[in-house]
Specification:
The chain is of the alpha+beta class and 266 residues long. The protein has two domains: 61 residues, no CATH class; 179 residues, no CATH class. 44% of the residues lie in helices and 14% in strands. The chain is built from nine helices and eight strands. The strands form three sheets. Strands 3-4-2-8 form a four-stranded antiparallel β-sheet. α6 crosses α8. The longest helix is centred in the N-terminal third of the chain and has 30 residues.
Length: 266
Amino acid sequence: MPRRSCDSEYQLALLPPEGVENTDEKDALHSRWVHSPSKRAKFVWGALLASSVSLNVLQAWSAQRTIPDSVAASHPDESHSPAWGVVEYKQRIFSEVTAVPLPWQGPPSDEVDAAWEDLYNFGLTKVPKSDAAKMLNHTVPIPGDESNFAIALDVFHQLHCLNLIRKTLHPEYYPDQAAAHHSRGQGVDHIGHCITSLRESLLCSADITPTVFKWEEAEHKIAPRFDVVHTCRNFDKIRDWAKERHLEEFDREVHVLDDLKIPVIH
């Protein structure tokens, strides 16, 4: 059945009632309707209100069909991370650009490598099925330990990617890794993946802390100031949480079936 637009409904309402055939009566009824502002206004506003309510109900119904109730949690992160319970916030001052390098800065060395690897290089994390069932993304049970499921918090993947990009700046110091990454053309793809992942993560978190400015007397100009206070998640607690649930290496060629259900949506 063809849909009628609001304009069509409005035009139909201007027609005289059925059974009125006398032209004078039609004209009189038409005249009374057209020249009665209150009736026209009530009809138009009523039609618009009905359309608006219908669209909102349809939109709400559609959303309920596609998004699990858990997504409507008071804090969105609570619905998809088993680590949410350990999250706490603290204020910290970001590092200013100085001549004194931080442990993760400076020319490549064993000390710099160790500082980077201490941030993330401790393997995957295992979580119980009860936590895996609450996540929005499907993961797999661990072969030989099917009551637990494998995950990796994305912050550690991001740190891995950043460290990989750092190493590509020094191919002379990391020749073995450079050769491995560039064999069969995999290097460019890996670096490209890491850049994309970091870009998406930055856009997702969208830190809105203001970068401020200061007057540099020595240079006689205004310059940005980076040692500003940020409100951050306590990274040490998140890292400790992941280390406590460290997942030993397992056979990745074994396929274990599972019965995880909604709210998993992907």
